[in-house]
Amino acid sequence: MNMNRLLKWCNFLCVLLLSIMNLNAQVTLKKIYVNDHYVKCNEHSKCLQIKDSITDKWQSFSGSIENFHFEEGNYYELLVEIHNTKKASSDSATFHYSLSKIIAKNKNDIADIFELDDIPWFLAQINSAKKNPKLKSLDAFIIFHPDENKITGNSGCNKFSGQLELSDTIFKIQKITSTKMFCKESIENEFFEQLEKVTAYKVKSKTLSLYNHKALVLVFKLK
Description:
By secondary structure, the protein is an alpha+beta fold. Helices cover 16% and strands 44% of the residues. The chain contains 3 helices and 15 strands. It has helices at 2-24, 110-114, 188-195, and strands at residues 25-34, 39-40, 46-51, 59-61, 65-66, 75-86, 93-106, 121-126, 141-145, 150-154, 159-166, 171-178, 200-204, 207-212, 215-221. The longest helix is centred in the N-terminal third of the chain and has 23 residues, at 2-24. The protein is extended, with a radius of gyration of 24 Å.
């Protein structure tokens, strides 16, 4: 009987202790970018370089990111968990980073990789074996969502979405679906057909070029 009572007290204390620890610990999700090389922190150690957005400057990061295995020569876009633990004995807090997801990993320039994120690119040119459709306006556009592995956009007639596969060796758009509104003289079929042929991309200035291997198939502009 005494042993059962002792076990109950032990279980109660364990639950209480875990509750107190959870109250003192806060976890937030954050997207960060990691540069392709280390920098020297001091005479004896080297640091990663990180930033919160592509327009920020690189900052040395002397900590570590749990479960993240950095390979020099690659840029990364990461989703990380930041654990903010407040010490019971003081007002100070400690921050611990752990990897939640690798959104993208690429050897290209950081701006070239991540300028795609959540920005509407407006269709300016279609190249194909068929007669090049005449683009009357920049109504058709595409938006890339690499953290969700998808694309969305508008063909100039219908809204569409599709799957996006993006890594250091793969760039693929597939399984495009759209609404079914009929539009006269639509470029939609040709647009979707060329999108599903894409294997590579290049960003320069305000122009996004999509390629089927080495053949240029689609050109987009920023408005």
